[in-house]
Specification:
Elements: H1 10-18, H2 23-29, H3 39-46, E1 50-56, E2 62-68, E3 74-78, E4 81-85, E5 103-110, E6 115-127, E7 130-141, E8 162-165, H4 171-179, E9 182-188, E10 200-206, E11 213-214, E12 220-224, H5 232-239, E13 242-248, E14 255-265, H6 268-272, E15 279-292, H7 314-321, E16 328-337, E17 342-349, E18 363-370, E19 373-380, E20 390-395, H8 401-408, E21 415-418, E22 434-439, H9 443-458, E23 466-472, H10 481-490, E24 494-500, H11 521-527, E25 534-538, H12 541-557
Parallel strand pairs: 22-23, 22-25, 23-24
Antiparallel strand pairs: 1-2, 1-5, 3-4, 4-7, 5-6, 6-7, 8-15, 9-10, 9-13, 11-12, 12-15, 13-14, 14-15, 16-17, 16-21, 17-20, 18-19, 18-21
């Protein structure tokens, strides 16, 4: 089998040089590109239910479109030929060239196992619904950044694909793009291509949902991660710049197709803002289409590529750009007194940017400027994520410098600096009943978790029994009273129990509180039915230690109870 001459064109070699790819490595890898398909590639293509093609329209613009059918709709009658039986999606509507000599780029992916192979060629002939492609270049790709999915079988009578012209302001287009963890890109090199395939390419891109970003100026951007260093796509962008993206929504079968011009941004500061990016690619769309029935519907949720945790999103990158030394300016939008010694502070970004997401139960580092000093503290976020603000419910400590400044000196409109939410004291995603045990200001992560549980149930999640048990001195020190009572009345799965250790004259047993003794195993045994529970414990250290030790002793000596030991969680 002979080796392809001039495997890489001038654009690819320019990008390889800019990326410092050693010549010795390139010489070794050139042997990976063949003029014929090995048997395993032929078998691979013949067993696929879907592949993606790069085809040119009558003006020379590349388009990336899928073709799919029952396995066997692609056939390899010889090592240097591939036959595609059926018309690629929207090929007629977009007037894509499939006549003799037309250039074709193909990428095939088995989404069940992350196998991926590429083939570039030219059309020998098209007749009777069969397009025969002469192989010019055949090579494999690694499984990086591919999310596995179980494709449903292509129907015998698939729905007809329809399309409508759209733009990036279209809500459905934005939804598909911003949720995408996978897209496919077609590109081409400059020049006439001489009827061959050199420089027409179809490729796959994968990342965390949000890795394909929509910019305020109507452009798109995506990171270029470490890959095989062939730089087929980037080499084409360097050479010509015309590209097409096919962005599928595997849940609905819809897709966004666009064609436009791309450019590579090598700026080190911008690249560094996107985790694991080595370059940034910007795309200016010329034409955008929303298509229905464009891909087979997926039967299972994706399993992300294991390395995705080390990559970023554009939301992450934009948030990082808003920070100085890891902190960002937030304004106190409102203050609300929750009890005699606890006040809630509602914080919103002063820069107008998005809020960094958190998980209910996490804490927020803050930095308060006082004269020439920077006072660092961390406080629990006391409400579930809402995308608009953080709520910190802070106890005024007699000797607490930060809490005194917050309570006594800062007011609406004042600025504090905020870091990224942290912490792993969060609800599990199981189905067991939940016991939230809190004392004093330890109620703050519990109220956030309860808030999140309410939102989950409202969103259709299964109900979990929640036993919300809180201990405090009296009604003057109890926070979130109205909120808790209202929720307990609304949801029958929420069981609220309040213990006062020093009730005031106006506190009424059975009304403002349920018991006047300290929480103990005897008290809890009256509240909790037999069975397994997930326990969450937060409060003053003496409160947590006493309950934790009591539970350990009781469970170890009383085999009639099935309560597990309380896990030793920390809270902030």
């Amino acid at each position: 089998m002979k080796k392809v001459p001039d495997v890489f064109h001038i654009g690819e070699r320019a990008v390889q040089a800019r990326a410092d790819v050693p010549d010795t490595w390139l010489k070794q890898t050139e042997s990976f590109v063949r003029t014929e398909m090995p048997q395993q590639h032929r078998d691979f293509f013949e067993n696929l239910p879907m592949l993606f093609l790069a085809l040119l329209d009558r003006t020379g613009r590349p388009w990336c479109v899928p073709a799919f059918g029952a396995p066997g709709f692609v056939v390899s009658p010889a090592p240097d030929r591939l036959e595609l039986r059926g018309t690629p999606v929207l090929a007629n509507e977009l007037e894509l060239e499939r006549s003799t000599g037309a250039s074709v780029g193909i990428v095939g992916i088995d989404l069940n196992n992350r196998r991926r192979n590429r083939m570039n060629g030219r059309v020998q002939h098209t007749s009777g619904g069969v397009m025969t492609i002469q192989v010019d270049q055949s090579f494999g790709n690694c499984p990086q950044y591919i999310q596995t999915r179980a494709l449903s079988a292509a129907p015998d009578d698939p729905k007809r694909t329809s399309r409508r012209q759209a733009n990036l302001r279209d809500p459905e287009v934005r939804r598909i793009i911003e949720a995408s963890d996978t897209f496919f890109i077609a590109s081409r090199a400059a020049g006439s291509l001489d009827g061959g395939s050199a420089g027409v390419d179809a490729s796959h891109r994968g990342g965390r949902p949000g890795f394909l970003g929509i910019n305020d100026d109507g452009t798109l951007s995506f990171p270029d991660f470490s890959g095989n260093r062939f730089f087929n796509t980037l080499g084409n962008i360097e050479s010509d710049g015309r590209v097409s993206l096919f962005i599928p929504d595997f849940e609905t079968g819809c897709a966004v197709l666009l064609t436009g011009r791309a450019a590579i941004d090598w700026d080190s500061a911008r690249v560094a803002s996107f985790e694991s990016a080595e370059r940034i690619v910007d795309v200016v769309p010329d034409e955008i289409w929303h298509a229905t029935a464009a891909v087979p519907v997926i039967a299972s949720a994706p399993e992300p590529w294991p390395g995705l945790d080390s990559t970023g999103t554009w939301t992450d990158a934009r948030l990082a750009a808003l920070k100085t030394d890891g902190y960002r300016r937030f304004e106190i939008a409102a203050k609300r007194k929750e009890s005699d010694n606890i006040t809630s502070f509602y914080l919103k970004p002063s820069d107008g940017g998005p809020i960094e997401p958190h998980v209910a139960g996490q804490f927020l580092p803050i930095r308060i400027r006082k004269d020439d000093d920077a006072i660092l503290r961390s406080y629990t976020i006391s409400q579930a994520p809402n995308g608009q603000e953080y709520r910190l419910s802070i106890k005024r400590e007699p000797r607490g410098l930060a809490s005194q400044i917050l309570h006594d000196e800062l007011d609406n409109g004042d600025i504090i600096e905020v870091g990224s939410p942290l912490g792993d004291f969060v609800l599990d995603d199981g189905t067991q009943p939940i016991v939230m045990l809190s004392g004093g200001v330890g109620i703050t992560p519990m109220i956030a978790m309860l808030d999140a549980q309410v939102a989950a149930v409202q969103g259709g999640a299964p109900q979990r029994e929640v036993y919300f048990i809180h201990a405090t001195q009296n009604s003057a020190t109890q926070a979130f009273t109205e909120e808790l009572v209202a929720l307990a009345r609304q949801y029958d799965w929420l069981h609220l129990f309040i213990a006062y250790s020093a009730p005031l004259k106006g506190d009424k047993l059975g009304d403002t509180h349920d018991t006047e003794e300290r929480l103990s195993m005897n008290v809890l045994a009256k509240l909790l039915p037999f069975g397994g529970f997930q326990f969450y414990l937060c409060g003053p250290e003496i409160f947590m230690r006493s309950l934790y030790c009591v539970f350990q002793t009781k469970v170890a000596t009383d085999s009639r109870r099935s309560l597990p030991p309380i896990p030793r969680e920390s809270c902030h």
